[in-house]
Amino acid sequence: xxxxxxxxxxxxxxxxxxxxxxxxxxxxxxxxxxxxxxxxxxxxxxxxxxxxxxxxxxxxxxxxxxxxxxxxxxxxxxxxxxxxxxxxxxxxxxxxxxxxxxxxxxxxxxxxxxxxxxxxxxxxxxxxxxxxxxxxxxxxxxxxxxxxxxxxxxxxxxxxxxxxxxxxxxxxxxxxxxxxxxxxxxxxxxxxxxxxxxxxxxxxxxxxxxxxxxxxxxxxxxxx
Length: 224
Hints:
Layout: H1 2-22, H2 29-41, H3 43-52, H4 58-82, H5 93-115, H6 122-131, H7 133-156, H8 160-186, H9 191-214
Helix pairs in contact: 1-5, 1-6, 2-4, 2-5, 3-4, 4-5, 4-8, 5-6, 5-7, 7-8, 7-9, 8-9
């Protein structure tokens, strides 16, 4: 049990450490921890919504229920707790906090999948999720955080229309990538497409992190 718990949480810790190291002005541990814990809490409303919202087929389930519900609850953590926080003041911070909230969600979800598995395949599930699902949640969050960071810059300068357009892009891009990931994974005939999709989105996410980290600066220095 202890080994499976460690295996379920290790990829979360490794990805968080990687993202944290890309931040040139690291965020306070307390703010990061609270964001992560709120991300853990969002598993509850997400599960309840997914149970009570009917889904007619895998396409509807993944694109219209699971992905948007899970990305919405994660984004609410960022908007309700982080958005107006004094520590959210650099451009790269958005990716840091979105990943923190998303992997809080992923950590609890992973523990549920691994520890509540009753068919003796907990180890296999933990290994598969370590290389697919946990990085997947991080990728969704990177897409979200990239646009949230731009939105917050527009917010500083009162560009409301651009701010809300970027927030919409943050939500819909994360939901689209998440929905496509889940849909391709659940359809056996699309396994090659799934692997290609994972590779492409991983590369895009890595490029986003690299670019955002390199260009990290206080938002107030942005030029209109």
